[in-house]
Amino acid sequence: MKRPPIRILELSGTHESIGHEHGKTFADEIRAYTKDRIKLVSSGLWSGGSISETEVLELAESMLPAHQKFDEDLHAEMLALASAAGISPAEAVIVGGFTDFVDAVRASIGAETPGELQEDDCTSMIIPDSRADGSGYLAQTWDMHDTATDHVLLLKITPTDQPASLIFTTVGCLGQLGMNNAGVAVGINNLTCLDGKCGVTWTSVVRGMLKAERSTDALNVLLEADLAGAHNYLIFDSSGDGYNIEAMPSVRPVNTLGADPLVHTNHTIQSESSDVQADRDASLLENSVRRLEKAQKILEEGTVDSDRLMTLTRDPEAICQTAKEPYFIESSGAAIMRPATQDFWACWGRPAENEYQRVDWLHG
Question: I need a surface site. Which of 194, 204, 287, 339 has the fewest CB within 10 A?
Answer without folding.
Answer: 194
